[in-house]
Amino acid sequence: MRVTTRMFSDQFLADLQKNLSAMYNVNEQLSSSKKVNRPSDDPAAMARIVGYRATLSSIGSYNSAITSAKSYLQSMDSALNNLADLIQRGSELAISGANGSLNANDRLAWAKEASGLVDSAMGIANTRVNDRYIFAGYASDQPPIDANGNFQGDSNRFDVAISQSINVAVNLPANEFFSSGGSPDNVMPALTALKTALETNDTPGIQTALGNLNAALEKVSQAQAEIGGRLNKLDAQEKYLADNEETTKTYLSSDQDADLAAVVSEFQQRQTALESLRTVSQKIFSSSLFDFMN
Questions:
Q1: Which residues have CB under 8 Å from 210's CB, separation 6+?
Q2: What is the DSSP pairing of strand 167-169 with strand 159-161?
Q3: What are φ and ψ of residue 22, in 5° steps?
Q4: What is the pLDDT of residue 244?
Q5: Quick one: pLDDT at residue 87?
Q6: Averaged confidence pLDDT in the chain
Q7: Predicted local distance difference test score (pLDDT) of residue 46
Q8: What residues are paired with 168 via a beta bridge?
Q9: Distance from C-alpha of 201 to C-alpha of 198, rounded to nearest angstrom
Q10: Is 153 helix (H, G, I), strand (E, B) or coil?
Q11: How far apart are CA 158 and CA 212, in angstroms?
Q12: Helix H segments across the chain?
């Protein structure tokens, strides 16, 4: 085969282009710290990377939903704890008021405290978190209990998605245990009946109120258990998401992140190769045909 200067030139340019292209890719990996910067670098890896990023985005959205849900449910749990304490105090007043040794004036004094309990219960029913009334159902822009103790919200539950298949309710409609329009063993009617019975020196009425208060406390306890169950579900899902996030980030790093030590080594090798090409090309192309004939 006859070797020409043109062949030397073409081979040199091909080697130069190959090394310059590799040098560019290595430099890009050093700048971005990523070994896959575009689909053409590794189509299969890029497809996986896109999937991992989508998963991490979903995890971030679900974590935000969990944080928001916890805010509402923890506030609700606190409100229910305060309500349970309040009902318990009402029961103590009823037990004291039912004592046959008390007179009308004694019971009237207890009635004043019972009136304060009614107002406090209304305040708890109208608890707000982030400008939303947490016991009002969908009608969360208005107080669920009006000045007369009547429920004016709705019974709908507000669900939040914490995964593709799991929803958690973040409210508890007040009509289930607050409203005067419901059963006499709801909180507001039971406390109001106690206040009235104490004011009117009605011993049988006080005893009836005591029974209703005990039933109301049971309703609140059930609501607390339900809220506790929801919070437990949020904690479990939060842990699952944290584990999934860690695993996904590991896979993403494996497909995406460059081994900087290896990249630096390759960069140095490419530099050496380019310098060798430069040196050899100078010797070859500076020589003439007569130099080879000597």
A1: 91, 94, 95, 98, 194
A2: antiparallel
A3: -65, -40
A4: 96
A5: 97
A6: 82
A7: 87
A8: 160
A9: 5
A10: coil
A11: 29
A12: 5-32, 43-97, 104-125, 187-199, 203-256, 260-285, 289-293
pLDDT, residue 177, reads: 78
* Chain centre to alpha carbon of residue 111: 45
User: Could you tell me the two tokens for 89?
Assistant: 């105090």
d(Cα 59, Cα 240) in Å, to the nearest integer? 10
C-alpha dihedral sign at 130, 232, 57, 32: positive
For residue 153, what are the CA distances in angstroms to 49, 94, 126, 175, 181?
A: 47, 30, 10, 8, 12
Q: How far is CA 212 from the centre of its chain?
A: 38
Q: Considering only CA atoms, which of 157, 159, 192, 193 is closest in space to residue 176? A: 157
**What was the pLDDT predicted at 100?**
81
Return the amino acid letter for 173: P
Contact 154, 173 (CB under 8 A): yes
Query: H-helix or E-strand containing 159?
Result: strand 159-161
Read off the tokens for 223: 């609501």
Task: Name which residue leads in pLDDT, 86 or 137.
Answer: 86
In terms of C-beta distances under 8 Å and separation of at least 24 residues, what long-range contacts does 263-268 make, across chains too? 263/26, 263/29, 263/30, 263/35, 264/30, 266/22, 266/26, 267/23, 267/26, 267/27, 267/30
What's the gap between Cα 68 and its chain centre? 6
Q: Specify the residue for token string 């959205």.
A: 61
